[in-house]
Amino acid sequence: MLYTCLLPACQSEQHLGQYYTVPPSHFHTVFPHGLPPRYQQQVKTFNEGCVMVRQPALELISHLKRADYSKPTLRYLLYGVKGSGKTMSLCHTVHYCSTQGWLVLHIPDAHLWVKNCKELLPSSYHASRFDQPIQASNWLRNFRTTNEHFLSKIKLRQRYVWTKRESTEEGRPLGELVDMGVSRVKSSSDVVGAVLKELRLQAGGTEGGFRLAVAVDGVNGLWGRTTLKKEDKSPVAPEELTLVHNLRKMINNDWCGGAVIATLSQTGSLYAPSSAYLPQELLGEEGFDSMDPFVPVPVSLYSEKEFESCYLYYLDRHWLQHPHSQTEEGKKELIFLSNRNPSVLERLCAFL
Amino acid sequence: MAAHTLKKSIWSLGRIHCHIYGVNVRNPLNRATYATALSTNHSSQNKGFPDRGNKGPFNRRSRREAGDPRTDRMPVDQDWTTVYPTATPFRQGSVPLPVRMGFPVKKGVPPEKKGNLELIKIPNFLHLTPLAIKKHCEALKPFCTEWPSALDTGAKCDEHFPVKVECKDYVSAGTSLRNPSARIVHLRVSLSACVNYDYAMYLLTVLYHESWKMEAWESEKTVADMEEYSWEDSPSQKNIMSTLVRMQVAGEGEGEAVREELLGRPEVQEYRDSVTRLKNEGESESSMHQYRDAVKKVLNL
């Protein structure tokens, strides 16, 4: 039993190790920017997106099903060694939230906001902060694609003034705000802040309430150092960036009606040793204190059963072409070479 | 004219070999040379290059040949301290040893000392031969006092100087002068040699009471200075308290009573222990699991 046709909502322990297919229509809406790049290539090659049902994702989904959404938000942190499947588990959970009708706020990689920014504008709203127009407008575009159906339903509760002539009135739909942010790139960071604030206020609401899932990949990028420099070559601290400042507010548990699911990531992180994978090493003191109390969810390497399943999937898709890889000997070699690490196995099989 | 000044400058420097442009300018074309102000036009020798004095386009300044290395003229019983009086880089012409250093490429041998950068890079102690050190000692002797004649046995030294302080210095080639192990100093006192028990007790009592005194600057101790993590008044405690209060776990009631009640709960105690363990002992899989279970219990998952 390699495949299951059940969507995440109906999956349970008995489906561990089986693959389920993400419907193609969901790919563009749910995952415009969230999937790992190699997985996206695999999807294009195989012409379908199959995700393995694994323990961490199931655990997360069961927590999400049973949680009480009138209490302050729960934070879940996926951690594990490089390549163990944290981003994929996050995407699996995001797919579940999306199929259940939640509003998904997916930040594909928080590290992208603290490095390699070509343009840093001083913020108009707050004197000592900096805006990142390109990153903010990109993210707003993807947000719009993911949550089209919510944009007309949610109404703003406050009036936002952008310039002397432009303002968004109370009661206008959220979609208008997002469109404005995408078109007026200069104020897009402030638009992101406004969007986050509105969603935070309205998430647990009783009238027309919706559940909000904040999925952040590489959350350890929000605390720590950046590689950005001000004009006088002094380094920029993360809290001086508008986007980071607003996102940190979302991760606090002072709102209710949703969940925060985050992963740690060493790849792409700045100034972190490559062997670091435990929460405190990557988050640092400040990050840990902000996230505390959170539920850490460890993501381990493939178990024997999961490895079997992955191997059979590649065989089934005719991905393993080399004749030796189809033998028992070859399988043992693969186990030895990859140490059952999912990403290493994927890269190895790409050569065969 | 250009060539005229060129020739004049060469003669005035009195060089024997001058190879400018590969042509021996001293007597080019075998013309008769006249030591007069006038001379024939040799501008054809210039080949169109502007005059730069002796520099020329390739800086072929005339240089004397390197002589024989000093090693050839070294007698066996020479005074080595004159060759290397101070710490200087390795000079292959001054060291009469057939030293080889480096990686043997293609099954060869380590390269010889001539032109060997590896030998120059490393520190050498050629200036510290036993003879040199003897000379240093002789030079320092006028500044030293004599060893007290009464302290001729080890026992007598111990008797008069019971406290021994041992410091270590380290020498190594590296990027930094400092070696952290050099900061460790051993102070040895033999307890059996302590004659004055009363004085020792007095000292210890004084130290004990002194340690209880609070200096003004001690109140400026910040969280970063603390040796151990204490959960009270930490951000972790504040977070969990506010979370629990908002979850209305304790029921109705405000302020201190609620806090006390919450702190007394076993789940909160467990949570406190796990966080303290994480911060003090560092992270590991087991401490993470403990933290996970504690959080799940506290938040009723």
Features of the shown structure:
A: 352 residues; alpha/beta; five-stranded parallel β-sheet; three-stranded mixed β-sheet; 12 strands; globular; B: 301 residues; mainly alpha; two-stranded antiparallel sheet; 10 helices; 36% helix; flat; disordered N terminus
How would you sum up this structure, described in words?
The complex is a heterodimer of chains A (352) and B (301). With 352 residues, chain A is α/β, with parallel strands linked by helices. Helices cover 41% and strands 13% of the residues of chain A. Chain A is built from 13 helices and twelve strands. Chain A has helices at residues 24-30, 37-46, 55-66, 86-99, 133-146, 148-151, 174-183, 188-202, 242-251, 279-291, 304-316, 328-338, 342-351; strands at 3-4, 19-22, 49-52, 74-79, 103-107, 121-122, 130-131, 160-161, 167-168, 212-217, 258-263, 295-298. In chain A, strand 6 and strand 7 form a beta hairpin. The radius of gyration of chain A is 21 Å and the shape is globular. The mean pLDDT of chain A is 86. By secondary structure, chain B is mostly helical. In chain B, the strands form two sheets. Chain B has a two-stranded antiparallel ribbon. A two-stranded antiparallel ribbon of chain B has the order 3-4. The model of chain B is unreliable at 1-28 and 33-45 (pLDDT under 50). Classes of the chains: A alpha/beta (352), B mainly alpha (301). The A-B interface holds A 63, 66-67, 71-72, 74, 79, 253-254, 278-281, 289-290, 292-298 and B 234-236, 239-240, 243, 246-247, 271, 275, 278-279, 282-285, 288-289, 291-292, 295-296, 298-299, 301. Chain B: GO terms for molecular function: structural constituent of ribosome.
